[in-house]
Amino acid sequence: MTSLLATPIVRPPIVSVAVPLANGTASESVFADALLRSAHLTRADIAGLVKSFSITAVSELGDKTFLISAILATRHSLMLVFWGSWLAMICMSTLSSLMGAILPALLSHQHALFLSGMLFLGFGGLMLWQGMHMSGDEISEEWKEAQEEIRVDEEEHELDALEAGMPDEARSTLQRASTALHSAPRTSMITFLRQGIRNLFDLCVSPVFSQAFLLSFLGEWGDKSQITTMALATTHRVTVVAIGTSLAHLLCIVIAVTIAAST
After folding, report:
1. Contact status, residue 51 vs residue 233, Cβ threshold 8 Å
2. C-alpha span between 66 and 254 (Å, rounded)
3. Residue 11, Cβ neighbours under 10 Å: how many?
4. Where does the chain cross the membrane (predicted)?
C-alpha cells in the first residue's frame, strides 16, 4: 500500500487543437481590423461613412440643388458646372460637420445622441412620406422653381453679357454692382459676401463656375441634408462625415450632369 501511494501519477500531456472557424471568420476579422488600423480608421468610422453617404445620397437625388446642376449643365460647360457645384457641396459639408461637432460641447453626450436620433427619425419619415405622396405636378413645380432661381440670378448679374466676350461691359457691370453695394446703407452682410465671392470667381475663374457655386451653396443652406450632416457629426468624426457627404454629393452631381449631357 505504501509503495502504491509513493508512485507518482503521470498525467498525459495536454495538446491544444486549433479548431478553425467556419469560412475563416476569425482571420477575415483580424485582416479587416489590421486594414482599418493602417488607414487610421475604426469600425465606428466606417459606420459613420456609410451613414453619411447613404442618407445624403437619398435625400439629394431630385432635390433643388440637383435640379440646379442639371439645368445649368444643359446651358453651360459641364466641367465648370460640375466643379462649381461640387466645390460648393464640399464647403457646405465641411461647414455643417464642424457645426455639428460643436453641439456636444454645448449639450451633454446623451442629449446629443437623443437629438441625433430624433433628427434621423424625423427626416427619414419625411423622405418616406414625400416619396409616397409626391406627384408629377410637385416635381414639375420644383423644376420650375429651380429654373426661376437661375433666371433671376442671371438677370441680376448679367451673366449672358459677361460670357459674350465683352470685357469692357463686364468690368463696368462689376464696378456698378460694387458701387451700388457700398452705397446701399442697409445691405446685409450675406449679400455683401455673396457679391464679393461672385465678383472674385467671375474675374479669377468663370461666371458659370461662380453661378454654379453660389446657387448650389445657398440652395443647400438650411436643407434637410445639412441638418442630417450636423446630426451625424455629433456622434462621428468630423472628417469622416465630411468625406461621406461630399462623396454623396459627388455622385448626385455626376448623375445630374450626365442626365443633362444626354438630353
Report:
1. no
2. 10
3. 6
4. 80-106, 112-129, 238-261
Of residues 203, 219, 200, the one with CA closest to residue 72: 219
Query: In one letter, which amino acid is 66?
Result: F
Q: What is the mean pLDDT of residues 132-140?
A: 60
C-alpha cell at 108: 451633454
Contact in structure between 163 and 87 (CB atoms under 8 Å): no
Q: Which amino acid is at 153?
A: D
Angle at CA of residue 24, ends 22 and 27, nearest 5°: 140
Set of cell numbers at residue 174: 462689376
Assess contact for 247 and 56: CB atoms under 8 A.
Answer: no
DSSP state of 18: -
Handedness of CA 252, 255, 261, 262 (dihedral sign): negative
- Exposure on the CB side of residue 160, measured as CA atoms within 13 A: 7
Q: Which residue has the cell 509503495?
A: 3
CA dihedral sign, ordered 131, 86, 215, 50: positive
CA dist 66 and 62 (Å) reads: 6
Could you read off the pLDDT of 75-90 as tens digits, one per residue? Answer: 888 899 999 999 999 9
On whether the CB atoms of residues 59 and 122 are closer than 8 A, the answer is no
With 70 as the cut, is the pLDDT of residue 237 above it?
yes
Highest mean pLDDT among 59-68, 191-200, 248-257: 248-257
Report the C-alpha gap between 62 and 170 in whole angstroms.
34
Q: DSSP class of residue 14?
A: P
For the question of whether the overall pTM of this predicted structure is more than 0.70, the answer is no
- Domain ranges in the chain? 44-262
Residue 68's nearest CA partner among 263, 195, 215 is 215
